[in-house]
């Protein structure tokens, strides 16, 4: 008998990889654990996977738009440690954390105002601290105080509003834009009251006497309601006819109403935020008096679009838990460092998962690619439940003499994941069959099992593993873990009750730069633009990532080399799924995405690129980068699209009433099973990298059997 615990890790997304990274960061970890990660297909990443198209200039092909945020404390902390250990030469591509991630201070909301679309710049200045370092435990009152302070921090400066002004310079907006409607004295009075609110919240945050606290909070509430009432009286009518006044008013109304709701609803008390998760955020905000302009405005629409918060991909069903959203929003306020948005300088697979893989492989973690989990089997004996067997298939055999699959390729000296398997490492006849039949080994609907007799593998408890980390996403559990659902009612309730949504992504390469395309907000030297919440459509988020041209294999001398790369993404409502296998289904759903993308290019892209889409029904197809033999709209076929419909790649939502269904990593109900992913109860409880990272850290902590706090897991609780 050995003291080394054999751990089988199923899946290679953010959570699973983070758990392994944390476990193996311990000194002499191999004396405690023997870790093997089993991964379907040829790459790590889960919903964050990306690949390089080696047949087309090493193009980056993503699952969607991936950005990191400055409040991702745990994710950046892990990434910093990974890059430090990776220790690339200083002249290597993406040598360090700040080469791989760069701060991005500009984003934008799209606003439909009086039946015309316009861009609402959101420019956040550099913020103090270092990303991934120095979290400060605070309470909700502290967070609200910071938020109010953001509103008033420039109030005493001379309000010379420049184009693209800071999002939080709203007081300047008021003074400049409202002067035709009201007197300065009224604005100065409101600013003075906001300062009193800020001071009152700061005082309350440090007050331990409950009676005094409630009295002070009542005074703050009265003051905030007075400010909101005054603002509504002064601004709501001009806000309907003046764009900047509209933005000023809805911003203040949004923040003040959220603060009023938090204070009057006593959501600052421990656990109170969870008690309002039976309410949709929009409905909750409206119930506390938010104006209709705010409730139906671009802040709200951008938020729902950014969270993929449309049930079943139906744009008429915006749905997200109020308490979860408030927690995430205030978390961002207090934890953000350096920049609110961070852009990756290559694909997410290249920036995140390749470094993790290289470090973990060097540490001694074993990776089994092309090992697809068919079923996680469990038993109940003498009142105890255990995972007793894991049934897998080995999807392909490697060539004779190849012990392990080597998954990475170099693209311009940067280790990357390819978009398809490296067929030259696979047994030749099997590789030919994969190619001839256009088999996607990551697809839930593949008919590969009908074409090739895959080797069956059975891992037995006690012989092959002692403990299991289940990192496969929740939508896959009914098909791969029926025993878990059958033996534990709570597990079944979670797996069947959590909402997930399909998403879609579309990428275009164009031979005109953003200025030539006619981007109306173009300014010399500006950061690459992006927009949230554009139009009532599923492709409602856009990011210009033209800086990635240098990471792909284009020749500068090529006259048709891209000068613009743009990514789009959003929710997707797929057709009813047939029973697997059915390889025609993914193809038909991708065709739907392509049709939607074509409609977008012809009829709605003129808001972004008026020179390319000068009128509805017209797009200058010659602007798209494509082989010369492709003409007209045929050039669309040379772009990239995907329908993320597989159970393992559906986005996990936080729809009303679902947080209470989530289980903690060690609450699976099975003695030797830990669950991990952004779908477990981790404290953040939303689909994002930080949520997944916290889950992975919690899983590693449970494996170690230790007790220590992880930042964020109990924030505001």
Question: Which terms summarize this structure?
Answer:
6-stranded antiparallel sheet, alpha+beta, 21 helices, globular, 34% helix, 5-stranded parallel sheet, 717 residues, single chain
Strand residue content: 15-25%
The best one-word shape is: globular
Specify the structural class.
alpha+beta
Spans of at least 5 consecutive residues whose pLDDT stays below 50 are: 154-175, 179-184
Q: Measured on Cα atoms, how large is the radius of gyration?
A: 26 Å
Please give the alpha-carbon distance between the first and last residues. Answer: 43 Å
Helix content: 25-40%
Largest sheet: 6 strands, antiparallel
In total, the number of strands is: 23
Overall mean pLDDT score?
91
Number of helices: 21
Could you explain the architecture of this structure?
The structure is a single chain. The protein is an alpha+beta fold. 34% of the residues lie in helices and 17% in strands. The chain contains 21 helices and 23 strands. Strands 17, 18, 19, 20, 21 and 22 form a six-stranded antiparallel sheet that branches. Helix 1 links the parallel strand 1 (5-10) and strand 2. Helix 2 packs across helix 13 (348-363). The chain is globular, with a radius of gyration of 26 Å. Residues 154-175 and 179-184 have low confidence and may be disordered.
């Amino acid at each position: 008998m050995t003291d080394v615990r054999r751990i089988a890790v199923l899946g290679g997304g953010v959570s699973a990889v983070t758990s392994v990274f944390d476990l193996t960061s311990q000194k002499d970890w191999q004396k405690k654990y023997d870790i093997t990660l089993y991964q379907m297909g040829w790459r790590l990443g889960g919903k964050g996977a990306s690949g390089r198209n080696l047949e087309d200039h090493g193009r980056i092909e993503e699952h969607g738009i991936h950005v990191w945020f400055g409040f991702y404390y745990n994710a950046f902390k892990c990434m910093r440690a990974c890059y430090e250990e990776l220790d690339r030469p200083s002249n290597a591509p993406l040598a360090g954390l700040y080469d791989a991630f760069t701060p991005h201070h500009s984003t934008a909301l799209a606003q439909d105002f009086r039946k015309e679309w316009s861009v609402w710049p959101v420019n956040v200045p550099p913020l103090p601290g270092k990303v991934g370092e120095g979290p400060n435990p605070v309470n909700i009152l502290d967070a609200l105080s910071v938020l109010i302070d953001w509103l008033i921090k420039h109030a005493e400066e001379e309000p010379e509003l420049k184009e693209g002004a800071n999002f939080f310079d709203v007081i300047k907006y008021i003074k400049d834009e409202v002067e035709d409607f009201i007197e300065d004295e009224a604005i100065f009075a409101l600013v003075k009251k906001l300062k009193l609110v800020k001071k009152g919240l700061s005082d309350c945050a440090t007050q331990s006497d409950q009676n005094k606290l409630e009295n002070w909070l009542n005074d703050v509430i009265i003051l905030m309601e007075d400010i909101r009432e005054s603002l509504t009286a002064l601004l709501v009518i001009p806000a309907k006819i003046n764009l900047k006044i509209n933005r000023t008013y809805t911003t203040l109304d949004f923040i003040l109403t959220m603060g009023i709701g938090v204070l009057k609803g006593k959501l600052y008390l421990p656990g109170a935020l969870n008690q309002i998760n039976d309410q949709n955020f929009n409905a909750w905000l409206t119930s506390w008096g938010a104006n209709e302009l705010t409730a139906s405005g671009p802040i709200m629409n951008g938020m729902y679009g950014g969270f993929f918060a449309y049930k079943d991909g139906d744009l008429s069903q915006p749905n997200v838990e109020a308490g979860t959203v408030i927690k995430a929003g205030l978390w961002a306020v207090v934890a953000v460092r350096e920049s609110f948005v961070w852009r990756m300088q290559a694909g997410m697979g290249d920036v995140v998962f390749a470094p993790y893989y290289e470090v973990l492989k060097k540490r001694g973690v074993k990776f089994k690619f092309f090992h697809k989990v068919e079923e996680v089997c469990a038993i109940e004996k003498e009142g105890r439940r255990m995972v007793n067997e894991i049934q897998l298939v080995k999807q392909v055999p490697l060539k004779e003499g190849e012990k392990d699959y080597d998954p990475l390729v170099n693209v311009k000296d940067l280790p990357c994941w390819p978009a398809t398997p490296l067929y030259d490492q696979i047994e030749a006849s099997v590789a030919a069959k994969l190619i001839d039949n256009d088999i996607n080994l990551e697809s839930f609907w593949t008919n590969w099992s009908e074409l090739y007799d895959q080797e069956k593998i059975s891992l037995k408890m006690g012989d092959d593993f002692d403990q299991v980390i289940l990192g496969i996403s929740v939508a896959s559990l009914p098909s791969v873990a029926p025993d878990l659902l059958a033996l534990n009612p709570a597990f079944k309730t979670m797996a069947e009750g959590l909402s997930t949504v399909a998403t879609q992504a579309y990428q275009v390469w164009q031979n005109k730069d953003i200025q030539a395309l006619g981007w109306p907000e173009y300014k010399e030297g500006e950061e690459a633009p992006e927009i949230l919440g554009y139009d009532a459509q599923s492709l409602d988020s856009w990011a210009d990532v033209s800086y990635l041209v240098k990471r792909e294999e284009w020749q500068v001398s090529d006259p048709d080399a891209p000068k613009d790369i743009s990514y789009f993404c959003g929710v997707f409502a797929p057709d009813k799924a047939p029973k697997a296998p059915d390889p025609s289904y993914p193809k038909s759903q991708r065709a739907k995405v392509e049709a939607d993308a074509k409609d977008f290019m012809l009829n709605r892209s003129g808001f972004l690129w008026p020179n390319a889409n000068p009128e509805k029904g017209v797009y200058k197809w010659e602007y798209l980068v494509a082989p010369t033999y492709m003409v007209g709209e045929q050039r669309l076929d040379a772009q990239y699209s995907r329908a993320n419909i597989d159970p393992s790649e559906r986005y996990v939502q936080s729809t009303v009433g679902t947080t209470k269904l989530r289980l903690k990593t060690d609450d699976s109900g099975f003695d030797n099973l830990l669950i991990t992913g952004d779908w477990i109860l981790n404290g953040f409880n939303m689909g994002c990298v930080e949520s997944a990272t916290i889950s992975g850290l919690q899983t590693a902590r449970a494996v170690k059997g230790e007790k220590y706090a992880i930042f964020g897991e109990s924030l505001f609780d």
